[in-house]
Amino acid sequence: MKKQFKILKIIVVVILLLPLLISWLPWTMFKDFFPEELTAGNYTASLFMSFKELSITLVTTMVFAMIISYLLGYLSVLSMAAGRAFSNVLTAIESIPSILIALFCYAPVSGALAKTSGSTSAFLSLCVFVAAATATVLPEAVRSISIPLSDLYNRKYSVSFRSYGFPKNRILSVLMKTAIMKDTLKRVAAGILLKTLVLDTSFGFVIQVGLGSTGTPQHTSPGALIAANRKALLDLFGDGTPAMFWIPSAILIAISVAFLIILNENKEEA
Predict the structure, then answer these.
(1) Could you tell me which of 77, 98, 25 has the C-alpha nearest to residue 55?
(2) Which phi and psi (to 5°) does residue 34 adopt?
(3) What is the pTM of this model?
(4) pLDDT mean across residues, the chain
(5) Helix (H, G, I), strand (E, B), or coil: what is residue 177?
(6) Tell me, what's the pLDDT at 15?
(7) Is the CB of residue 129 less than 8 Å from the CB of residue 57?
(8) Distance between CA 56 and CA 122 in Å, rounded?
(9) 238: left (phi over 0), alpha (psi -120 to 50) or beta
(10) Could you read off the pLDDT of 91-135 as tens digits, one per residue?
(11) SS3 of 217, please?
């Protein structure tokens, strides 16, 4: 029964994450599934493009943040001095709202992004956002890795390793390969994905509301699409349909639920 429930969870997660995979297909393949009022303009193409770029952002940020979190978490336990230094810096970062960190990272380069070509600006914007998102997720990610790793190192069987003269770095490298740490890394990855999704959506919304379609930085996200069509929800101007607001919103909720299921599953297994 437990195995069947786990299979059901996997199926549900895959279904909820399907929009990210479908976004890589030509949107014209799904033209018949959308009302004519959505396909008449460029809304459907923008919808697919926004979730395509979201998938790139999620994967890139997760890989980059996981590498740094792994290294910092490992070094924090390997060296107490390094651990205290990392803790002070990450605590300071954690006290700043993530959206402000993203805006702060973009402030020095916004002029340069505005002067570059579309493709170059989009690439540089992605790099800046990944750096900002990584900074926001590092505090909890590093803490989630270093605490269980330190706990494993101080357990009795780790003491036996030390009694045989194994160096600390060798013991830690062995502990990082245990089932507990593997589950921890999966949980950290799911948390990074969820936080990046929230930051991407909120940042895209703020940029669209504040600067509009001609603003910089070039950050295409579902949040920007939602903000651009927020007036259609109120139906004040008759230039859209509420579906233009609710479709990307519903997809974002589904993806968020998928990440929450992954997080909950890993916690139950830990």
Answers:
(1) 25
(2) -105, 145
(3) 0.88
(4) 84
(5) coil
(6) 92
(7) yes
(8) 12
(9) left
(10) 999 999 999 998 888 888 777 777 776 677 778 888 889 999 999
(11) coil
